[in-house]
Structures are given as structure tokens and as C-alpha cells.
């Protein structure tokens, strides 16, 4: 008899937690004790959709085990009669997901069934409503379903403007959220393809007097909002002084108000708990000022932002410097996404100021790769795992550099060679690097040559024990075949992509 | 502060208290037997070889943040990036790994238990019930009626 964890029922359950449904279903047929242990896991997540809804025998079996269901998803154009489908035992669901289809068949009836389902499952904490394929805007207008979910703490509503004529379908959702906001811990309200700014949605809000004390939502720590202008979403921010995570994606530049509103909490003396800030599609001077103000006031003596993600077009030099001044010690992830840039990052500054940085993604100036300034600064950034660089060439600094360096070809060649070594040698100091991804937007051949790998560089690269992948684009002259062969010999698992 | 542990075959190990406390069982024992720390803590189900390996694991992970067991239940299915040390640690034969899982279970070293269970789950992935029974010498103890019933569980593979 083999002694193994597979002979101990409690361990079979532990192991089952790592198995997908198909494997669980197979394992449940091994023997009685496995069956007993794995059935609750097998029926934990159940999905009712166009594919599964007609599998009568499946639902018959599921009914027997419906007390094990914890997460239930309905993705069909009507809400099923759950009582009939799953029996009275389905009472312990904690997460419900709806959509993206509309309840086109008997919408009123469907809403009544949905209401009855949520009242039978009082432990629902997580609700996601996807309205993106809805054709009518009646979901929240019929009835505020949130009222019937007393334990609700995580809410996500996704919406879009399709069909365009109709606008978003979440009319009424905003008011419904305001009603239950104080019990939420996380809220996502996203309107894709731009949101509505029509007067209907603003009605009633403009009259709200700021001096009137509004009820705050102290439990809410994670807020994700996206849309067009953010007029209404500001109301959420106003109520959430304790946010740890704020993600805001808006089309129109005047939503700097969201940032301004967040800063107001801290300016009025509220201690900041912000750790994760993600801002997309914000442009313009006002935004820049509001963002920098927020970065200043949300800083704390021994803690600050861990994650900062932004669209690269709004990453200005002053924004970057403000970020580093106030958050360099806590920053773990910094990403400027996109290839349009307001300003390239100063890589030397970053590497000499952020000791905890684990992941960086952004546009840098080609000249940065000389790492000249690092001679003067200590290199503190030793824990970097992911490095994604888009390399541009900033003309002004390039000429500046050329002006101080001799321009005859022999020296030029010498410079390129020494730079090359410098780049890979410096990179060799990032002992924990796992992924290196470089995209070059430059026609300058010397820059490309600079990054190419020669035999002498291999020691630095092979010294990076955790490196899994290198991507260089475009990388025609990245390395010669014999260098590649040697690298593959020395580091067999390493993926190298270059075209 | 140091703590001494005794394996089932009588070997004694001395480790830092905070290392030993990665085991929920030892942590609880230390609270109860605060006054009586001169005697080694007996671990009746854990052999010396496994105990040495468990201690090696705990030494390496002594500073890891504790994880809440129930909170991340549904995230367990996702593949994770194992770090090099853990990868190296799991390069042992199947029998040794099984012993380690049993040891981690009896000592309640949660992160090691999770690591081991993930490893064990990989073994049974894509295996048929018959293959699993043969591999682990498990008897098929379903009655014919139950056999009929559990046939329905096959449907999951079609979903």
C-alpha cells in the first residue's frame, strides 16, 4: 500500500482546489470518499448559459448538489426559474453574475425571478451586472435589484453605448449605487465606448448643495470608474475618503475633477490610504496640475503609492518628478502605457531612487541607455522583475550629448562599443530580472547597434539567473548566429524574440 | 529564541522559534507549554528526513506574509509563478513529495501544504478514474446503483 496524500480524504479536498472542473469530474468517479470530498468543489461554480441551459440531465444532477453552489452565472436572454431548475437547496450562493444579454423574454417575469433568487440567497456578497449587450435601458428602471441584496459588498456594473442611439443602458444604476454605497467595499462602474453626459443623467445632481453634509462610504476601498466626462462619478469619489485603489478612465479632459476631488479628502485632513492609482485618457494642463496635487497630498511618511499606471501621453516630466519625490520609497509598479509620450522617463533617476520597484513599463530616451548619470548615483533598484522599454530618441538631448563628445568616426565607434558594454553590464545588475521587452521607435542605426549582444555581453546576461524572456523589436542586428548559439547553450530555457 | 523539535524516529532539531511557528500546530503548542520549553516538541507523524526538509522550507520562507486560507480559495486554480527556490525544492521523487505533503499536513505548515497539493494535483490531471485507481491502489467501492448515478458527473467534461 502506497502512503500518499491521495488516501486521506481531507487532503483530497485540498488537492481538488487546484483542479479544473473536468479533472474534478473525473476524480469524483474514483471512489466513494473522493466523490464525497470533491462534489462540493465540482458544483461550486455553476453557469447557466445558452450552451448549458438545454442540458436537462445536467441540471437534474446539479439539483441534487445545489446546496454546494457558491457562484452562479446567468448569461442568457432570460432568468431561469431557479426553484424549478435547482430546487430549494440552492441557498448559499455568495457571488452572482448576470449578462451580458438582456432579459428580452418576459422582462418583468425575469426580474421577479431574479428578485426571488437573491432573497433566497441572503449571503450574496459579490454581484456583477454586465449590460453591454442589452438593448433597452430598463434593467435598473424596472426595479432596484440592489435593495434586495443585504450582504452586498462587491459590486460591478459594466455598460456601453451600443446601440449608439440608445446611449448607456444603466439608467437608474447611478441612483441605485448611491443608495447602497455605504455597505460596499469595492465598486466598479464602467461605461465603455464613452459614457453619457446627457442632461437626464445630471438632473438632480447640480442642485445638490456642497455644504450639505453627504454621507461617506468608509468601507469602500476600491473604486473603478470609467466613462465620458465623469460628472456623475465624481459623486462616488466625494463619498470615498478611504480608497486604497482608484482607477479612473475617462474620455474628456475635464474629469481632472475626479483627481481634484480625491485630493480634497487629504487636504481636509483625512489620512490617505491610497496605494494604487491608475489614470487613463486624461489630458490637458488642468489634469496635470490636479494629478500632481494628488500625488503630493496622498503621500505619507512611511507609506505611499505602490502602483501607478498612467497613459504615456500624460506622463510629463514634472509629474514624474513629483511621483518620485513623494512615492519613490514605496513604488513597486510603474507603468506608462502607450507609445505617444509627453516626456521620456529618466531611467537613471528611477533606478537610483526606487528601491522597491518590481515592474517598469515606459518610454525612455535612447541616450538614457548610456546610463551616464548612474556613475554619480547609487543603483538601488535591485528587485526589478519586469522591464518594458519603448525607446524613442529625443532630439534635443541627443544633440546635447553629441556636442560634448568628439565626432570623428573612430571615437564614434569607440563610444558605441563602450555604450554597448555599459548597457548590458548595467542590466546585469538587475539580478532578479525576469522579462526584458524593448521596442525601438527610432531610425538611428547606432542605437540599434548599441543594444546588440556580442560575446563579451553574454556573461552579464547569463548572470541574470531568473531571466525567462527577452523581446527586442525591431532587432535585425540584435545578435549574430554564433552568439545566439552560445547563449542558447548557456541558458537553455531562455526565450529570445527578435525580428 | 530557539525551539527543539523531535522527529518520530527520535532525531532532535533546533530551530528559531519564528521558523518553527510557521507550523500552526507548533505555534499552538508553544502557547500552551510556555513554561516547559526544555523538552523537545515531539512530532509523532514526521520522520527525520521529512522534518529536515520541512525545516529547510520554513527557514527560507520565514519572512513571508501569512495568507488567509479562505479568502483566496477561488484564485488557487490559477497557475502561479513558482520562484526558483521553490522549484528547486520540489525537484524530489514522488514518494518524498507525498511524505512532505503528509508532514506539512500533520504540522499544518500551510504554504508548504499548498505547494505540495498543487504538485499532487498536477499528477492526476487528465487521468481517467481507472488510471488513478491503479496508480494509487484505490478500490472502486461504488455499488452498481451509485455507479449509475455518478455517470452523470461525466457531463462536466462536455461543458
TrEMBL record, chain A:
<dbReference type="Pfam" id="PF12937">
    <property type="entry name" value="F-box-like"/>
</dbReference>
<dbReference type="InterPro" id="IPR032675">
    <property type="entry name" value="LRR_dom_sf"/>
</dbReference>
<dbReference type="InterPro" id="IPR001810">
    <property type="entry name" value="F-box_dom"/>
</dbReference>
<dbReference type="InterPro" id="IPR036047">
    <property type="entry name" value="F-box-like_dom_sf"/>
</dbReference>
<feature type="domain" description="F-box">
    <location>
        <begin position="10"/>
        <end position="46"/>
    </location>
</feature>
<protein>
    <recommendedName>
        <fullName>F-box domain-containing protein</fullName>
    </recommendedName>
</protein>
From TrEMBL, chain B:
<dbReference type="InterPro" id="IPR036296">
    <property type="entry name" value="SKP1-like_dim_sf"/>
</dbReference>
<dbReference type="InterPro" id="IPR011333">
    <property type="entry name" value="SKP1/BTB/POZ_sf"/>
</dbReference>
<comment type="subunit">
    <text>Component of the SCF (SKP1-CUL1-F-box protein) E3 ubiquitin ligase complexes.</text>
</comment>
<comment type="pathway">
    <text>Protein modification; protein ubiquitination.</text>
</comment>
<dbReference type="InterPro" id="IPR016073">
    <property type="entry name" value="Skp1_comp_POZ"/>
</dbReference>
<dbReference type="GO" id="GO:0006511">
    <property type="term" value="P:ubiquitin-dependent protein catabolic process"/>
</dbReference>
<feature type="domain" description="SKP1 component dimerisation">
    <location>
        <begin position="110"/>
        <end position="156"/>
    </location>
</feature>
<comment type="function">
    <text>Essential component of the SCF (SKP1-CUL1-F-box protein) E3 ubiquitin ligase complexes, which mediate the ubiquitination and subsequent proteasomal degradation of target proteins.</text>
</comment>
<dbReference type="InterPro" id="IPR016072">
    <property type="entry name" value="Skp1_comp_dimer"/>
</dbReference>
<dbReference type="Pfam" id="PF03931">
    <property type="entry name" value="Skp1_POZ"/>
</dbReference>
<comment type="similarity">
    <text>Belongs to the SKP1 family.</text>
</comment>
<dbReference type="InterPro" id="IPR001232">
    <property type="entry name" value="SKP1-like"/>
</dbReference>
<feature type="domain" description="SKP1 component POZ">
    <location>
        <begin position="1"/>
        <end position="63"/>
    </location>
</feature>
<dbReference type="InterPro" id="IPR016897">
    <property type="entry name" value="SKP1"/>
</dbReference>
<keyword id="KW-0833">Ubl conjugation pathway</keyword>
<dbReference type="Pfam" id="PF01466">
    <property type="entry name" value="Skp1"/>
</dbReference>
<protein>
    <recommendedName>
        <fullName>E3 ubiquitin ligase complex SCF subunit</fullName>
    </recommendedName>
</protein>
